[in-house]
Amino acid sequence: MLGVFASMLDGVLVGAVYGLAAIGLTLIWGVMDVINLTHGAMITMGMFGLYLAFTELGLNPYVALLPVAGLGFAAGVVIYWLSVHRVVGRPPLMSLLSTFSVNLMVIGIGTILWSTSPYNIDVSLPGFSLGEYTFTGNHLLAAAAAVLIAIALSLFLARTRSGKAIRAVASNRRAAELMGIPSSQVLARAFGLGIAIAAVAGGLIATLFPFTVLSGSDYQLKSFVVTVLGGLGNPTGALAGGILLGLIEGGVTPFIAVSWIPVIEFALFVLILIAFPNGLFARRTHR
Amino acid sequence: MTKQHRWIIAGAMATLGFAGLVASGSSVAAADVVTIGFTESETGALNVDSIGQFNGFRLWRDQVNAAGGITAGGKSYQVNLAFYDDQSKPDRVQQLYSRLILQDNADFLFSPYSSGLTATAAIISEQYGKIMITTGASEDKTYQLGNKYLYEMYTPASAYLTGALDALKTVHPKARVALAYADDAFAKAVATAARTYVQSIGMELVFDEAYAPSTTDFGPLINKMISAKADALIGGGHYADGATLARQVYDHKAPLDFISLLVAPDSPKFATLGESAVNVTAPSQWAPQATFKPDFGPDPKTFGDAYRKAYGIEPSYHAAGGYAAGLILQHAIEQAGTIDPDKVAARLDQTDVETFYGHVRFFTDSSRHGLQAGHSMVIVQWQKKGDQLVKEVVWPRAGATAPLAYPLH
Amino acid sequence: MSPKKPFFWLLVAVIAVFLLPVVTRDVGLRESLLLAAIYIILATNLNLMIGFTGYVNFGNIVFFGLGGYIGLYLVTAAGFPVALAATVAGLGVGAIALVFGLGILRLRGAYFALATIGIAEAVNAFVSNFGPWGGATGLYLSFEAYRPLGGPREALWTVYLLLVAVMGLSLFLGYAVKTSRFGLGLFAIREDEAAAAVLGVNTPLYKAAAYSLSGVLPAVAGALFFFKQGVIQPDQAFDLTLSTEAIVMLMLGGQGTVTGAALGAFLYEQFRGILLTSPVFSSFQLVIAGALLLVTVLFLPGGLMGWLYHRWPRLRRVLE
Fold first, then answer.
1. Does A96 sit within 8 Å of C56, measured CB to CB?
2. Which residue in A6, A277, B307, C223 has a CA-CA distance of 20 to 30 Å to C14?
């Protein structure tokens, strides 16, 4: 019984981090109706950003999250003007492909720089034990950071002027424009914010598990699943979706072979997408 | 859309098409050169394992060429290695081996690293009738598909973990064994044999699960092992997953007394795991401390010294296997007096020799042609000597350099 | 639309080019053209969904992979001859696609695209655990299987000819659909699904039929391709990269036109062949593919054919 509880707790800790990654994806989706296929590549960049800050600059990996977030934001703004600006409001194929093409380029450059070999951030914080089960400090800290960032983001969106502008553009771009909000700038900022969150989530994941240049695409798929659980375009839902996914995975793991988990995960993904396109936590249907 | 844009695009597309036409030329082989083709995993999950094998090939080539090449039928052939990066991916392997044969005119082939990649490459070697000496490819099934040109340097996968279990039996006859292995061709073949062996020697198999080779989060598996009250862990797969598993077992403070993992702990790089590596054991095809008396070629010490001089690190068993693959091929070509594949294959069938790498002989019956019949394995363990981690041979007892350290911590 | 002779002659010319290695017995050229044929099959069939119907299928590779598995399984376990196994695989996958299609085609736009990714991953994960198909290690062909075709070397030629035939069929199918009433219905759905429904197009049926149809020939090609490879493994069979590359080819050549899909696929294969063997350039392959795709999407949504048609409007009347 303790084993099942430990497994679920482990799932929740990791799930919170996946939830954070999904927030980056779902924020962009909600604001500009774009499924950002650079998401995985940006998670990867976060991982390598943290790796370089840790090994080359000798920064504490948790401190290094700050520059990673800053660079992520800058990269996001650049990518917005380069590939997203022209396709906002066009058919989904256009934005899917334009962001996917940036993804190809970033992964290509990453492969040239770091090949596809595994990397590892060698940091190990003391955790706590429940009976024979141990939870590492890395997991605890990553989950706590994920939750804090998610809370900070929702405060930002709800309380600050910039945050309100983003919400205004999301709900009605033309009306926002008429109220004097420079909507393109706001979209660029929102895109930068989404990428910054993805990069930070990537950095946190890198403190838990080894990674390669291609790891981002796995976590991008995870983000899709989490996003669909939490409701596309719904940042708070995404964190809840991540934690729920962690609970399900952790709860199921003790009873079936681990290799079946992805089958359940993706079958669930397709079924929920068909049955509840607005997610399990959607309060009302919009759009 | 402006006019300028259109021209840029038209130009780009025309260039692509043109470059495609130019690229289909082929190279010409010079006389008295024997070309050996292979792919290596310069990048991807298998790169740590593959590099040792690649170093072994290159050391052999350099030494042969410095000594005047391979002599056959009154001619001396300089050895030319043709190789590409397969990125640890099977789909590239087939394309690249076709290219090695068709465009680089390879006379012989070495295998890529790992059973999975080799199984796909073997199909090409067979389709074009080229001899392939395999190293780093020990899954038995590959040799049972009716191949005629495949020769295996390694002891087959089925024997990998039996030695570790024998060693464990001497210190803990009633061990509760957890088997956690990568879901790939090689590790699965090892696990199938180990599963039966655990029960046949009176131990209890309390956990038995495969994981995806790309797994990075072993937390769920480790928690299940703890729940199953396992005290010994056997399994693993290749370097990337094995090293991660060892590290996370340590981080999770799993109460295990004995760990034996495939491949990963044999690599010199495993020592960088520090505390997580202490007293972890691995089955090994060869260890530098070996004392074989070779019929030809270097003895173990000469090989080890030359390797350390060339690459600045200890040779892993992959390195020894790579060098030995060249040595065995060279021996067969020299005996046959020609580089004709069918005549060389006939000589390989008769191989029954002792080298620095140990005994080498191949099965020749059609149900398992080319499977290694002569070679045997050892068990190595990373032991702490002061601040240093040292790789000792602990099994079989006859060749041991140190006693088995048990329990783990 | 009346049938146009030039397309027919173009088809004949393309097949004639692909038969060139049979005459010269050039194995290297055959291997290159074989991949080109596969790419053309994938891109032209994907065109039925993306180009004609306006639905983005990111997981089209699932047809190719499932076809490969069914085909190889029938050859190894039931001893089917390869041509029969490939046919059964095609029909079987068409039927499976119809079932999937009726489920996920309720979704529109990006939701549909996500669902196709989900299906590809779910099938990949399932097959990785599916014992009869060898799980993650996959299925291996015994060399005996090549014997009825005259040994491995001859078998490769037979497989090549079959693949060229499937490629010809794909081109013909694309053209036939485009010029049929069925195709007209699909175009109506692409332009405005609600309006199409009002005008009497049975949209759910049309969409599901297009989805199912777009799976048949890729499945046949998958069966033939993996028979040639001699081995099939889940990660190889359901590689999402190939799936997305097929979209790149389609966009490059020009979605909505059969000639464009084929041209894009052919050029992409040539481009990939050059970059394959260099470790540095094989990474640049992604960078260049990405840059080309971005430029196409942003500035040239009609792809190469769109550009040609724009430049020489008469070409559209002559070709398709």
1. yes
2. C223
